[in-house]
Design brief:
The complex is a heterodimer of chains A (234) and B (410). Chain A has 234 residues and is of the alpha/beta class. Helices cover 36% and strands 27% of the residues of chain A. Chain A has a domain of 64 residues. In chain A, strands 6-7-8-3-9-10 form a six-stranded mixed β-sheet, with helices on both faces. In chain A, strands 2-1-4-5 form a four-stranded antiparallel β-sheet, covered by helices on one side. The relative contact order of chain A is 0.19. The chains are: A alpha/beta (234), B alpha+beta (410).
Chain lengths: 234, 410
């Protein structure tokens, strides 16, 4: 299993009250799965994604990433995992406003210590693969929403991560651009990437093969989507 | 690691470029500190090269017997010694006769007078009565451009001959050769036997307007009421203290002082001036350290403040970088380098201003001033250390940020 979550709990201590964001989540995700995590806001889906993405650590429970317990890892180990195993795509893109598209895509490669020349090459290829060949030198403010999200996707996949985590990737886009972005994810999936989407939109979920529903910090449903069933039959 | 530093440098440069004015204003404290320290140090160094060289001309192996000490800082002392009798020619002769430790003895007697030739004249030139060794002691010029200096015969027979400074020769003899010509000094006429090489200024004094003559000729021209200064060049510089004792004894004998009476003369030497000079420069050093330290402290706090602002402003950026794999150390490095670079901007501006000031001082005042490379490097290093020290807290705050909180920051 690529990802194995056993009885994961997350409690936020806000002083007077404790918020139980996750109350015992068990979830296994294999290689090259295309999974969507759905739920209303406040259900704990973002917390779950942060934990899977090693941005946060669970209060209790065990998280095995490629068989290694995340619990035992130091801050720097977690940084290395975020750098090399996980690619993030955020709802608000989270690009550096002063850097151009190319430099934004280069960032993870800088932190993995790649030479200037290699990383330029890799970043260019990643941008070409998301269809932004002509926009490399543009800053985020000079790009449309869809283009910004493509830059973010290029950045997520530039270091060849085993998992691409996308948190509401179409949330800030119109439906047409959203569909375009989802097609990029589908293409990445067909190339062998594991993709985990967090969304609350039905039509986004339909691109995935597996549909996990989360409610009040617990998994309420875990089933194949129409897409997934078709793939299974084939 | 090198690559990380380079990257952090580029990020920092970009951050500073985005807020140029802010960065420059922030460095003001550092600039003032650097200008003060570098300025004072360059003045001290200028003094060292100018003044100290001149003092060292006095020679470590020469003692000067004078009526008064060279340095009197205490008014009471001045009051006590003001009635000391003059040093006279007979004392010079006595020392010359009986001193065993002296190599040679040089009388010096000084006054101001006009010199003239025909319709050309100069007022208030320094006239020095001395003997054949006159150029070998004191601040005076050391070399002759032409002719010769006083000979023992000139001195013993009180011959009316003179050696004149470069500027006097230029003024009185614009077209002719002064050698063998006559000039009027005071009321007497002197034969010019030598011209001194050009010396330039020393601490604002024109060293090229001196006239040297035999001390007897000086007395004939200006009277003998002036006090002598007797320079005693030692055979062995190691025997400075012995010589001091010997000369004190000889002077007391010559003056017939009783055992209980205090010395009514002074034995001066270069050390006294050096000590006085050192006490002045010590004050300058303390001022430099004080003002420099305070302004660098204030500057450092300013930098810490602006770095806190920078960290807060870029919380989201820090979150993004952490999400993409930046470690705490990388973030820390990034902000430390930014803080050091702001300091570096301050140092460069400060050095520029200080260099300009030093050049101005050198050109428009009698004080020589120079900026040395070693001090510039040392100063830069010191300010960079300040950048690290005051950048440490903001940088560690940035490094400790939780990536999720940072990403959510609006």
């Amino acid at each position: 299993m690529l990802i194995q979550l056993n009885d994961i709990t997350k409690v936020y201590d806000l002083g007077q009250e404790k918020v139980h964001a996750l109350r015992g989540v068990d979830l296994s995700i294999g290689k090259n799965e295309y999974i969507s995590i759905m739920g209303p806001s406040g259900s704990g889906k973002s917390t779950l994604m942060n934990i899977i993405g090693c941005l946060d650590v669970p209060t209790a429970g065990e998280y095995l990433l490629e068989g290694i317990s995340v619990h035992t890892m130091s801050d720097n180990d977690l940084a290395a995992i975020r750098n090399q195993r996980i690619g993030f795509v955020f709802q608000t893109f989270n690009l550096l406003p002063r850097a151009n598209a190319l430099h934004n895509v280069e960032l993870p490669l800088i932190y993995s210590g790649m030479s200037r020349k290699d990383r330029r090459e890799r970043a260019e290829q990643a941008l070409i693969s998301v269809g932004l060949k002509d926009r490399m030198k543009h800053k985020p403010s000079e790009l449309s929403g869809g283009q910004r999200q493509r830059v973010a996707i290029a950045r997520a996949l530039v270091n060849n991560p085993s998992i691409i985590l996308a948190d509401e990737p179409t949330g800030n886009l119109d439906s047409e651009t959203g569909t375009e972005i989802m097609e990029v994810f589908t293409k990445l999936h067909s190339q062998g990437n594991t993709i985990i989407l967090v969304t609350h939109e039905q039509h986004v979920m339909e691109f995935a093969n597996r549909d996990v529903r989360i409610l009040d910090g617990m998994i309420s449903e875990d089933q194949l989507t129409a897409n997934g069933k078709r793939v299974m039959q084939e | 690691m090198l690559q990380k530093i380079l990257e952090s440098g580029l990020i920092a440069l970009e951050a500073i470029r985005a807020h140029k004015l802010r960065a420059i204003l922030t460095t003001l404290g550092i600039v003032i500190g650097v200008v003060t320290v570098v300025g004072i140090i360059s003045i001290i160094q200028g003094l060292n090269t100018g003044f100290v060289n001149q003092i060292s001309n006095l020679g470590t192996d020469v003692l000067y017997i004078d009526r008064y000490p060279w340095i009197v800082t205490d008014g009471n002392e001045w009051f006590r010694i003001r009635r000391r009798p003059r040093i006279r020619e007979q004392h010079y002769q006595y020392i010359k006769e009986y001193s065993l430790l002296a190599d040679y003895v040089v009388p010096q007697i000084q006054g101001h007078s006009s010199v003239a030739r025909g319709k050309h004249s100069l007022d208030r030139v320094t006239v020095i009565g001395t003997n054949e060794h006159g150029l070998r002691v004191g601040f005076g010029p050391q070399d002759l451009a032409e002719g010769r200096f006083l000979s023992p015969i000139d001195v013993n027979r009180n011959r009316m001959v003179a050696v004149i400074g470069h500027r006097i020769a230029e003024t009185l003899f614009p077209a002719a050769d002064p050698l063998g010509e006559r000039v009027t000094v005071g009321s007497q006429r002197f034969l010019v036997i030598g011209v001194l090489e050009e010396q330039g200024n020393m601490l604002g004094n024109d060293m090229d307007s001196n006239v040297y003559m035999a001390h007897g000729a000086f007395a004939r021209t200006f009277g003998n009421w002036r006090s002598y200064s007797i320079a005693v060049k030692l055979r062995d510089p190691e025997k400075m203290e012995d010589a001091r004792i010997e000369l004190t004894g000889l002077m007391r004998t010559a003056r017939r002082l009783k055992p209980r009476e205090e010395n009514n003369f002074e034995i001066n030497n270069q050390d006294m001036l050096m000590n006085f000079y050192n006490s002045i420069t010590r004050g300058l050093w303390l001022t430099a350290i004080g003002i420099g330290g305070i302004s660098l402290l204030v500057g450092g706090i300013g930098i810490m403040n602006i770095m806190m602002v920078s960290v807060t402003e870029r919380t989201r950026e820090i979150g993004i970088r952490k999400a993409l794999g930046a470690t705490r150390q990388t973030i820390m490095l990034q902000f430390l380098i930014e803080s050091m670079m702001i300091c570096l901007v301050g140092v460069l501006i400060g050095m520029g201003v200080a260099a300009g000031l030093a050049m101005g001082i050198d050109k428009f005042t009698p004080l020589p001033a120079t900026i040395s490379a070693s001090w510039a490097v040392l100063g830069t290093g010191f300010v960079l250390v300040i950048g690290v020290l005051f950048g440490l807290w903001p940088a560690s705050r940035a490094a400790k940020l939780n990536p999720i909180d940072a990403l959510r920051y609006e």
